[in-house]
Amino acid sequence: MATINGVRVGLYVFLWLCSAVLLGLTGTRLHYTLRLPPGDPLNNGRSFYDPIVAELLVTSVLAMIWSSYIIHIIHRSYDYGRFSSFAFELLGLLALFTLYLVGAAIASTYWGDLFWCHRYWQCRILTVLVAFAWIDWVLVFIITVVSVLCAVANAAFWHPLHGRNAARDSYYQGPEPKRRWGLF
Description:
It is a single chain. By secondary structure, this protein is mainly α. Helix content is 64%, strand content 0%.
């Protein structure tokens, strides 16, 4: 039977993977816009960059670092005081939630409807970039809800987020099995 910590680690791994994809997409977009060929019709061939793409790149890097840190804490059961508590995890998730929400919303405003130019690979990259920004935001939201529910169920906002020292560690095994003769 899976514990809530296994689910949380799985969600953080998925967030890390989706953030890595978003990092690659934003890097590709920045590479293209900073090295435009002279005859390119985009911006009359002058190099530029989209600030929201840079924000999404930084947010994806922060999400990858954050996911790696939290996976390390949960999996290895390390205790770094307040820096490994549920409250600290929720504070970091709130920052990522805000960054992804702003990035995905602004990117959707700029590139929400690019179906008219899907024959060009840069339009397809922008469409996938917006999609992964929203996927990462949804993942951060789900992880936040799961972590809040786990912290509330165990009254453990200032306890270590690996949950190994909680009286109720969000793992329900059911009632004790009745044993015959006390042996089996």
